[in-house]
Amino acid sequence: MLELCCFLVKPPALLPGSSQKSKTMRSNGFHPPAAVSPVHKQSQLVFQRMGRQIGKLIQSASINNVHKFRTNSRRIEALVSELAPENGNHKKLLKLLSKLRKKAGNVRDLDVQIAFLKELKVPDRQNHRAQLLQWLDSEQARRKKKLEKAFDSETATELRKRLQRVQGEIQFDGIDCLKLAHKRLPDPGTTPLSEKMLHTCRVEAKKARYLAELAPESAESKHFIDELKKAQDAIGEWHDIMKLKERAEQLFGGVSDSALVSVLQNISRAKFRRATSALITAINEISQSRKAPQSVSSRKSSGAADAMHHSAVA
User: Fold this and answer.
1) Is 47 helix (H, G, I), strand (E, B) or coil?
2) Residues 6+ apart with CB under 8 A from 1
3) Hey, CA dihedral for 215, 218, 223, 226, is it positive or negative?
4) In sequence order, what are the residues at sequence separation of 6 or more whose Cβ sits closer than 8 angstroms to the Cβ of residue 47?
5) How many CA atoms lie within 13 A of 197 on its CB side?
6) Is 301 in a helix, a strand, or coil?
7) What is the pTM of this model?
8) Of 259, 214, 206, which is closest to residue 45 (Cα–Cα)?
9) What's the CA gap between 56 and 201, in Å, rounded?
10) Predicted confidence (pLDDT) per residue in 268-302, tens digit
């Protein structure tokens, strides 16, 4: 009779919010995955996009695929350089990425220059514009073949393995990507920028922007990214025209020898002034917006301290 009563006793009811399934999973040694930080989540997206672009570029070295591979390569380089531990894989990955990115960049830059030159309305009695276009088309075809040769299936496999390895080595705990981005922000100084200095600032600004893109979404991070993007667009336009002008000079001589070179030099100078102004404006805007919340916070703290002091005196 006692044994029968034991069988009739009902099991204890589960607490609200719990489930028998979760208990069974834990008893089998399964533990729910830990929460992924926003920085970790954003970095995963960067690596995933890079993986897709590797596959697309192997299939076709189209201008769109080349451009996306190039921009994603820069994002990976910024992420790995700043967050991954330095070791053999780290160095070999950056070296391989840099080599492929530069080859892709050569193809992409020539495409931008060709598009600009086709739209340029300028008297061409010397036929220099047509000659330069012909040279650019030929050079782009040559550079594209070099990229396709360098980016074979063996290289793609190595690149994927190194990316997978470095992704598992990055530690995201306690990382403030927006703070790191502010540290990476270039300082143009007070002296007038030279072309070389502007190009260096352009590279550093890209690194800073890509780090900021890993940070959790906020008004500050959005403002940081938007301001730098405007500056980078202006600097990029100048850089493309400057390279085009240099190529025209190599083929046709100086401004006294070629009307095309003269026009390109004038455009390049105007773009340079606009680019330097855009960079300085962006950095000032970012710096001021960062100081503003701190000054407001300090005023609030000061006001609270004054109120406490008056209360104590009363």
Assistant:
1) helix
2) none
3) positive
4) 76, 163, 167
5) 12
6) helix
7) 0.78
8) 214
9) 31
10) 999 999 999 999 999 999 988 876 655 434 444 44
